[in-house]
Design brief:
The structure holds two protein chains of two kinds.
Chain A (H helix, E strand, L loop, with lengths): L2 E5 L2 E4 L5 E8 L5 E7 L5 E9 L2 E4 L5 E7 L2 E6 L8 E8 L9 E2 L3 E5 L1
Parallel strand pairs in A: 2-11
Antiparallel strand pairs in A: 1-3, 3-8, 4-5, 4-9, 5-6, 7-8, 9-10, 9-11
Chain B lengths: L2 E4 L4 E4 L4 E8 L5 E7 L6 E7 L4 E4 L2 E6 L4 E6 L8 E8 L6 E2 L3 E6 L1
Parallel strand pairs in B: 2-11
Antiparallel strand pairs in B: 1-3, 3-8, 4-5, 4-9, 6-7, 7-8, 9-10, 9-11
Classes of the chains: A mainly beta, B mainly beta.
Chain lengths: ~110, ~110
């Protein structure tokens, strides 16, 4: 069966520090991969999505970036965090041919920038 | 840009009643609409997907309608139970690739 791993679960980082969040998927190949952010009291905001290795689409201009170095690995990064980067970061995957199904989300990373 | 609105106020209902949640959208013509359940501190869990040419879809105690004229989806939970208490999110897409989410509605089922 397919599983998605996301870590760390919580993170407290100072303003201006770098960030790296990792997400891996098991049990499937060539998944669509997504990074969402959920700020307090707000909906899920799509940040990046990828349909294949090295293929990244950005939805919102910001100081975050994403990379997909391997088929089932998706990384969210920042060189210098801002206070506004605080939030709940969620990685998700969906099979490219499984339109009848929704996303499968990871357990999320709670990021607090101080 | 697209705007997706869900009831911002929490919904409280008595156990056994039908809960009805609303998702309205503007500036968008989605071909697909999904509903998710989210518990505190956890990622959303997929419940149902409905296409623009489908008026209604059911799964166990859940029913979703999709009215492209009204630009609205209704999500019903019949015979609601306290375990149904959670935040429910709608998500829309016109490609089926990337979905855009509403802010969610918090549902509390009172025993």
């Amino acid at each position: 069966s397919q599983t998605i791993h996301q870590w760390p679960a919580t993170l407290v980082q100072p303003v201006g520090s770098p960030l790296s969040l990792e997400c891996t998927v098991e049990g499937t190949s060539n998944p669509n991969l997504y990074w969402y952010r959920q700020a307090a009291g707000r909906g899920l905001q799509l940040l990046f999505y990828s349909v294949g290795i090295g293929q990244i689409s950005s939805e919102v201009p910001q100081n975050l970036s994403a990379s997909r170095p391997q088929d089932r690995q998706f990384i969210l990064s920042s060189k210098k965090l801002l206070l506004s980067d605080s939030g709940f970061y969620l990685c998700a995957w969906r099979g490219q041919s499984s339109l009848n199904y929704g996303y499968t989300f990871g357990s999320g990373t709670r990021l607090t920038v101080v | 840009s697209q705007k997706i609105e869900q009831n911002s106020e929490a919904l409280n209902i008595q156990e056994g009643k039908t809960a009805t949640l609303t998702c309205n959208y503007t500036n968008y013509s989605p071909a697909y609409l999904q509903w998710y359940r989210q518990d505190p501190g956890r990622g959303p869990v997929f419940l149902l997907l409905i296409r623009e040419n489908e008026k209604e879809k059911r799964k166990e105690r859940l029913k979703v309608t999709f009215d492209t004229t009204l630009k609205q989806s209704l999500f019903h939970i019949t015979a609601s139970q306290p375990a149904d208490s959670a935040t429910y999110l709608c998500a829309l897409s016109n490609t089926g690739n990337q979905f855009y989410f509403g802010t969610g509605t918090s549902l509390t089922v009172i025993p």
